[in-house]
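Category: protein sequence paired with discrete backbone structure
Discipline: computational structural biology
Format: plain text, a pair of labelled lines
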Amino acid sequence: MDQSHQATIFDKIIAGEIPCHRVYEDDRVLAFLDIGPLSPGHTLVIPKERKAHLHQLSDDAAAAIGRVLPRICRAVLQATGATAYNVLQNNGSSAHQLVMHVHFHIIPKFERDGLGIGWKPGKLDQTQAKALLTRMHAALEADRAR
């Protein structure tokens, strides 16, 4: 196990020490039904690579998630009859992450069941946007050079 990663319940699920309702599994990804669902069909998709936050994942683990996420979404929609859903992914406790292992929630949305979101949009300041872009482009260039 990665020493920078604290053991979580997901590690025990991956290891088969705790049972789950498996929706999908391959050598890099596991998807299973959430035991505290916001709606029927609420599914968790996790990489088997043990990292707490999305930005820590390797490119290979991220690509593996990206390849299967749409397939699992389609399966959730077909199985539940939902026509709308949210994909939610939180990073850090202040962003509402409870289990410190990267995971994506696929949450079918029904009239009363599903994810509720309070969204308070601000306004993008042009000066701030230019400064952010400069720093983000530099960060992307540094990451590519690694």
